[in-house]
Amino acid sequence: MPMLKKPAQTALPAQTALPAQTALHPSLSRAVLQLVALAAAALIFARPLPIGRVRALAYAPADVRESRLKPENANLTLPVRAAFVILARNSELHALRATIRQLEDQFNALHRYPYVFLNNEPFTAEFKQAMEWATTGDCHFGLVPYEHWSIPPWVDRLRARWAMAAMGTKVPYGTSESYRKMCRFESGFFYRHPLLEDYDYYWRVEPGVEFTCAIPYDPFKCMADSGKQYGFTISLREVAATVRTLWSTTNAFRAAYPEYIAANNTLHWLTTPSGDYNMCHFWSNFEIASLAFFRSPQYTAYFDFLDRAGGFFLERWGDAPVHSLAAAMFLTKSQVHFFDIGYHHKPFQNCPTDPDFNSQHCFCNQNRSVIHNSDSCTRAWLDL
Ligand SMILES: Nc1nc2c(ncn2[C@@H]2O[C@H](COP(=O)(O)OP(=O)(O)O)[C@@H](O)[C@H]2O)c(=O)[nH]1
Ligand SMILES: [Mg+2]
């Protein structure tokens, strides 16, 4: 039976009656409602902290930066403040071990230069242990900060995703976002990592590359003694689809900063007769260079200019053409050195030209050296 008579409010026990302060003034309750709505909108529309950043904040100090020093190196004095710098994933442990064993046998066992390993994720204990055992130099392990391994906020993510899909899989790494993050990192951030602060020169090494000849001199010392800024061993032509506007953006940079362009630059090495980019670049998976070159105001301005243009994500600008265009603009020919070192990164290799040296100290085939390939730009470089 429905109750027809409403129970009288006054019949409620005193303690269940509504407290007097909940009866808000209408304008006050409107303000409270507005505040609640604002907070809800902020929660819904605010950009969440990127996952990578949340994880970076949760990392232990040893994940961010760990040095494993070898007691036998405590009193070692190296002629140059230099290190091998290796960006690698944990999954590349075995390929990297093989590379480091060759590098040690062909060169570093006699010198004991240190290694800096960098990763966008923490290195595993297994990785660190394996590297410590494979090397003679001290080992330093560092985490790449999220800001150095991400799409910057001014790049339209939707446009970037569309561009990646449109490039497709026919272009190497055409659809890969992580490859683009790697290229941006290697173009503008590796040299800013705190673990590199103590060094003047670096030698870039990648998992899986081979060193096919003895290296009977110290390339770091050679760079430092002769005032060289950038050293390469293989040069090639870039896949044009990946750098559609890199040349026009570089020309815009040159127009904006004419004071940064070296008088005796080598831009003609990478320019076609009609003034376009001929796609020549130093293959940056092997690189021995001065960190001062990358830390310079010229290079910093150039990277910032490129990064603002967004081409690392809206196209697929590689760090190799970026480093090479910078070297061509800011350095003279005598500051760049061709290292005729036995080196193999699939599918190309450099095998030293001297037949006597070759037969005594190498396990590569000179006929297979990329310098004989029409895609190599090294002869043109040497002829400059
Ligand atoms: N930590 C980390 N390293 C990467 C990643 N992608 C590429 N690298 C490293 O970046 C370098 C270049 O990558 P690679 O796959 O060799 O590219 P390729 O030489 O252009 O074919 C190598 O040293 C890789 O180990 C990644 O997602 N994370
Ligand atoms: Mg590689």
From TrEMBL:
Recorded hits in InterPro entries, A to Z, give: Glyco_trans_15, Nucleotide-diphossugar_trans
Say which domain of life the source belongs to.
Eukaryota
Q: Which residues form the active site?
A: 287
Is Transferase one of the keywords UniProt gives this record? yes
Keyword Transferase listed? The answer is yes
Which Pfam families does this chain map to? Glyco_transf_15
Q: Give any GO molecular function from the UniProt entry.
A: alpha-1,2-mannosyltransferase activity
Gene Ontology cellular-component terms listed: Golgi apparatus; membrane
Keyword list (alphabetical) reads: Transferase
Q: Which Gene3D superfamilies match?
A: Spore Coat Polysaccharide Biosynthesis Protein SpsA, Chain A (3.90.550.10)
GO BP: any one term: protein N-linked glycosylation
Q: Which family does it belong to?
A: Belongs to the glycosyltransferase 15 family.
**What is this protein's name?**
Glycosyltransferase family 15 protein
Organism equals Coemansia biformis
Question: Lineage of the native species?
Answer: Eukaryota, Fungi, Fungi incertae sedis, Zoopagomycota, Kickxellomycotina
